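Cross-posting from the modeling subforum.

Setting up a comparison between two proteins and wanted a second pair of eyes on the formatting. Protein 1 (sequence, then structure tokens):
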Amino acid sequence: MSEQRKIKVAVVFGGRGPEHAVSCLGGGNMLRAIDRSRYEVIPIGITREGNWVQVADAPERLAVTGGVLPTVEAVAEPGGEVVPWAGSAVTASAAAHIPHLFGDVDVVLPVLHGPYGEDGTIQGLLELAGVPYVGAGVLASAISMDKEYMKLIFKAKGLPVGPYVVVREPDWPASLAAETPADWSQSVEAKRVLDEIAELGWPLFVKPARGGSSIGTSKARDMGELHEAISVARQHDPKVLVEAAIDGVEVEVSVLQGIDGAPPDTSVPGQLVLEGPEEFYDFEAKYLDSASRMEIPAPIPDSASAEIRRLAAAAFDAVSCEGLARVDFFYAADGQILVNEINTIPGLSPTSYFQRLWEASGMPFPQLIDRLLQTALAKRPGLR
């Protein structure tokens, strides 16, 4: 990169998925923290309808205000298609048409979560366009987004995961809603999956297989609640994951791609602590109240902490991840360690723990962003 000019970075946030607002929070945090002495920043928002909009560089408008979550429209001119940015007027693109300015940027920093952003879709677009970008490639993004295949890969690589059952539409038809719980086991379609679920025990956690931020996730204590939980999850994804509850605590580790081919770097682990009415770390606990926090470092034995960090790096490598990730664990009451999931674009809002874990490990957020961008710029194009 020439030292005669700043590196042009397109920060892309919003998106068509259900985590649109969470992505906007992360986009605002990136705009606020990125080193403007080194980087020229071009903010790009994707609306819920799929329009790409070059928006105002106004991170203060991408925050929770009065309990209201932000959207891309928060940094667009209300009531019109024209968006002011850097003193000029830029018209929003049509859905599925990306701005031509992508040809002028040096690197793209996607802050997108869930389907249509974290699942390999934008990564494939950027690969085709030959534009460097931060984070995992197409395969790692797609595998990590789909919790069924993520767990299959983890198990194949010898990583410990908790018991779970995948529920598809033929396994659990919507017609079961008209039947009583006692009749469900008589349904030919549901018999096999019911037998598998019965082996998990109660309570259960039910979530969309390709979701995040705990959107659509519920806790089920009996068959009636299980049916309702599956219906809620299917509002976001036709494929649903039913998981056994683990008696223990949740621990998270932030991961960065190693420099010059070195193994992945891991942060100190942090333990989630709920102090409010929520029964688990749901969307409200993550973004809308102050009743949750993280103890950093996690108050667990040193040996367990070391093993969790080792497993975090192994999970990163197992899915061929690049750039960054957050790996979530269960540390069970009996000392067992289970890998829960990997997030290839972890939450990056001011309240998210990805950056806090690195700050506690000695890496300030602006330095962290710089490392992500430099890693992306050094990435070899094409097959890796």
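Protein 2 (same layout):
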Amino acid sequence: MSEFLYLMGEIDWRVRPLVCAIKRWAQAVGLTNPTPGRWISNFSLTMLTIFYLQIREVLPSLSTLITLAGKVR
């Protein structure tokens, strides 16, 4: 999973700063908490952000990435 997150950050330089800003915002408004429990996790926020960027066609979908990876061979 970490390779996927790294790849998404490499595809568009705006991904990492956006994810960082969303994490900080979520912490400031109390959506996340460092202790386990009934909180949304930073990982979940990151995946939701990537999904949103895929829907808006800023980032390619996973199926597109798989197709492109098959063509490299």
